[in-house]
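Lecture 7, part 2: worked example. A protein chain together with DQA.
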Amino acid sequence: MAKLNTLVVASIPIRRAEDLEKISYALDADLIELRVDYMENPLDIDYSVLPRDKVIVTLRDISEGGVKFHDPQIKVSLYRALWDMGIRYDVEMSFLSRYDIPYENSIVSIHIMDSPPKIDVLCQQIIKYIDKAFVVKIATKPFQGYKSYLARLLELGDKVAVMPMGVDPIERIGFSLLGSRLIYGYVDEPTAPGQMHYKKIKEILNTLSLL
Ligand SMILES: O=C1C[C@@](O)(C(=O)O)C[C@@H](O)[C@@H]1O
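Predicted complex, written out as structure tokens:
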């Protein structure tokens, strides 16, 4: 089997600065996501000490699965500071449509929590960001036809990542085999429904890529 396109992301909820120690638990992941929307104040972290080749900082909008509400201006200032430090972040398409922040080499995402956009409309959005983004990521709660919908989005190239939320985590392995650029797993607690432990993902994908 050819080498898979998928990068394994270990996702960590960050509630306080001390939680950054958990990065050391997941250094064998390809990337480590720090979900700082779990914090009261995401600016309470010294981001400059983070391993910039490894981390993704995510301040997830509450409307797309975020845990706490944060003022959008906090997110704008945080992401602009991360940009200046060369640290990758994850920003929603909806946020980019309302606020002017760079997204080159970052993850541009959408989380479908109820009815999906028309697939042609979403494809246009993906195409708009795909050249400059690191990855364009689509995560969705299940709906009638979600598997073929996500598989269709993977046809847009090897910088697209798709994942279903709230279904059997093994389905994510399937989308990795179909070319999803990212697959998310947890370290000590899931950051979304439908994740398995990131080490289990690594074990399965390593076995499959040996076939
Ligand atoms: O967007 C994603 C994907 C995710 O929601 C998942 O389904 O694993 C987990 C989030 O932490 C991450 O930012």
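The longest helix spans residues 72-85. The chain has one domain: 7-209. Keep this in mind for problem set question 3.
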